[in-house]
From TrEMBL:
Upper classification of the organism: Bacteria, Pseudomonadati, Bacteroidota, Cytophagia, Cytophagales
UniProt family annotation: Belongs to the ComF/GntX family.
Domain Phosphoribosyltransferase: 102-230
Pfam family, one: Pribosyltran
Record-given protein name: ComF family protein
InterPro entries: ComF/GntX_DNA_util-trans (IPR051910), PRTase-like (IPR029057), PRTase_dom (IPR000836)
Family annotation (PANTHER family): DNA UTILIZATION PROTEIN YHGH
Top-level lineage group: Bacteria
Length: 231
């Protein structure tokens, strides 16, 4: 009873609001309001996971399997607003909520029991300390809750890399070459893994991670992101 009273008090003094439209949330709305959930720019890459514009983007960079993204990214659009708040406005709950929503969509289209674990792309410890959380890890957390599989932090980032934002496709690949590794104490052998990140543009970071997982004996590596952006 005291817990509910304290929650009611906090909601009264510090009302929770939707990060997209700013309206106050009802108790049953965890992060996004129902209206904004219904207007998300949802992509359908999971309906053709082996042959879409994302799989063609990473052709030749890694062993191509399923490549998917929950949302379509557009500048000044809803997906950009959510990602900006997730990464730079201390709203980790956005990543977790988007993971839950996407996992529900995946289950509804037949992806139950497809993977053994969700693997987030890691941040460098310096960046993790500065931000306080890994946005990809939050996305993985939401996915793992609904898919009922392990949230597996089996990758480490060995080097601090410069931002990828203004780099070309070749520069991005060179920037993340030999950056990631699976620690010797961890085994991914024989596992079906869903590797996740916040955004896929050229695919350089995801492909670098995927190659490490393949080389470490993973049975399958599929890729999924919150949003898919342009070149």
């Amino acid at each position: 009873m005291r817990l509910f009273l304290w929650k009611d008090f906090l909601d009264l003094v510090f009302p929770r609001s939707c990060p997209m439209c700013g309206t106050n949330l009802y108790d049953f709305e965890k992060c996004l309001c129902t209206t904004c959930q219904g207007t998300l720019p949802v992509a359908n890459f999971h309906l053709r996971p082996f042959d879409n514009e994302l799989t063609s983007k990473i052709q030749g960079l890694t062993q191509v399997n399923r490549v998917m993204s929950y949302l379509r990214f557009s500048k000044k659009g809803k997906s950009q607003k959510l990602l900006h708040q997730l990464k730079y406005r201390n709203r980790p709950e956005i990543g977790e909520e988007l993971g839950r929503l996407y996992a529900t969509e995946l289950i509804n289209t037949g992806y139950q029991n497809t993977w053994d674990a969700v693997v987030p792309v890691p941040l460098h410890p310096m960046k993790l300390k500065r931000r306080g959380y890994n946005q990809s890890q939050e996305f993985a957390k939401g996915l793992s809750q609904i898919l009922e599989i392990q949230n597996f932090n089996c990758l480490e980032r060995k080097k601090f890399t410069e931002t990828q934002t203004k780099k070309s496709r070749l520069e991005r690949m060179e920037n993340v070459d030999e950056v990631f590794a699976v620690p010797e104490s961890i085994s991914v052998s024989g596992l079906r893994l869903l590797l996740v990140d916040d955004v896929i543009t050229t695919g350089a970071t995801l492909c670098s991670c995927a190659n490490v997982l393949w080389a470490s004996g993973a049975k399958a590596v599929d890729l999924a992101t919150i949003a898919a952006g342009g070149q």
